[in-house]
Amino acid sequence: MSSKASSSRGGESIIADCGRNTSICGYCKSPTGSSISHGLWTERLTVYDYQALLDRGWRRSGCYVYKPEMAKTCCPSYTIRLRASDFVPSKEQQRVRRKLERFLDGELDLKQRERKEDTDVSFSREVSEPLRKPHGSGKREQTNEVEPIIKELSDHIDNAVQRCIQSGEFPSNIQFPKSSVKKILSAKRKKLAEGSEELLYTSNIAFPIVAAIKQTQASQKGEGSKKTEENVLSPETVSEKLLSEMNKVGGFPGLAIKVCKGHINFFSATQVTSSEREEGENLLSATTTTKSSSNNLQVRKRKLEMHLKRSSFDPEEYELYKRYQLRVHNDEPESISKTSYKRFLVDTPLIEVPPSRDGGDDEEVPPCGFGSYHQQYRVDGRLIAVGVIDILPKCLSSKYLFWDPDFASLSLGNYSALQEIDWVKQNQAHCSSLEYYYLGYYIHSCNKMRYKAAYRPSELLCPLRYQWVPFEVAKPLLDKKPYSVLSDLNKASETVVESTSERKDMVQRDDDKEMNNSDEELDSDSSVNCNDITNILISLNGARLRYKDLLRMINMGVRKQLEPVFISYRRVVGAELSERMVFELQ
């Protein structure tokens, strides 16, 4: 597809250069401004120009586009992608599909199986740019190692303890311990008595409560305290009182609560209900999964629907986003607002490209068109997840996913990634250039981001020459140091056969080279001088002109101020884009 054809159909990109930005890193949690990036504010951006920016290491957050300064930032972030047609799902990824199908068939309750930590919480998250600060970027990226359901059950019990204190069931002059809920591993379930196979969680909070009461009584004996009913509370009595209080406020979705010998036990319920909601209007496409995988082709008990809609504010999506941020990422309520949500996940500079109406267009466009979208996932009408994506000429770029914490055990982050890869495969028939699935940034120095490499065969973008390098080739380089010139493939192979002394010499040469390039991440087209910036496209008072035309209108003092800005701008976006996108002078 020619740049001329794409620009004529997609309009023109208008940007303002924000320059270098330093902020607290959302990955390594460095207390200083160690996260360093270059930013652009985009008023309008064609999908073709954004595709080109992606292929130079940029990403967007709302209308803000940013690129890490790889040799300087604390956590170098490499653009990662895979060719959808080459994707081979792992056994774990296949299990994710089967688990959700079993849930739809009614064979699996949400709380029935152990849930491994869903590392997809961070899927496609970009938190290093300044636009995320209003969301609490430093705190949000911390993945809670405790299952959300365990925290909720603990809070459920603690609330019951407080109600027992208020009603006089428990003494009010005691500092009671916080409850602790433990998961019952499948291996232990098999050793339990018959009939307890579905026991999922348990708490022995009644025992420390009784111990706290007894300890307080012992300390008060010399003060002539009178023994009361509470003095003879047993773990069995305490657990019964807590159960009674928990039942008063309603059960816990998907779980049945019982007590036994002082323990509070949580069992999987026999059925999980789903709320009924009307389908929203203006949905561009829908994929319904109702067919059973069994041989008799029975209709599934639950229906999964996926709806692709243009990016816009949806109150239902916003309520789900709030629940997700509060329960999964422990954000403070005051850090979440409609304004910050819109700025992060709704606002987009991408100029929509509608689907082709006839076969005469030079460009091939998928049936939905190009632009920014929200992919809704619904079970029996209930919104359970939203994927925020960009559909571009070469790829589907995954930006963010938020999901219903009640469905955490379904690994919706993994499942949505598999669905998005399938979408690329299906739509390549309509748009031959649509080949890739972009997973956002890969950070080798951050363990919680390494899961993206599990989508194979993936490749990383070299930060110096902007060549794509197979992950398996890049990994040995990244194991040595977080920032590496990935396209130095010959050096990667040489490390296998070189002697120890030769390898040390090579590492020293690499370090010296990177020190020389650390101030300016020079690429193959960035030997910049005054002549290089003469064709940069500029907007001035609504007019379009080249920098060489502007020279006739400005004095030497203004020229000295502008040229460093234009040199830096040309370096980070490349020669072609600097001459195609419109640089708006402030």
TrEMBL record:
Pfam families with a match to the protein in the record: ATE_C, ATE_N
Catalyses which reaction(s): an N-terminal L-alpha-aminoacyl-[protein] + L-arginyl-tRNA(Arg) = an N-terminal L-arginyl-L-aminoacyl-[protein] + tRNA(Arg) + H(+)
EC number: 2.3.2.8
InterPro entries registered for this protein in UniProt: Acyl_CoA_acyltransferase, Arg-tRNA-P_Trfase_1_euk, N-end_Aminoacyl_Trfase, N-end_Aminoacyl_Trfase_C, N-end_Aminoacyl_Trfase_N
Residue spans of biased composition, Basic and acidic residues class: 126-143, 500-516
GO molecular function, one term: arginyl-tRNA--protein transferase activity
Coiled coil regions in record: none
Function: Involved in the post-translational conjugation of arginine to the N-terminal aspartate or glutamate of a protein. This arginylation is required for degradation of the protein via the ubiquitin pathway.
UniProt protein name: Arginyl-tRNA--protein transferase
Organism: Eruca vesicaria subsp. sativa (Garden rocket)
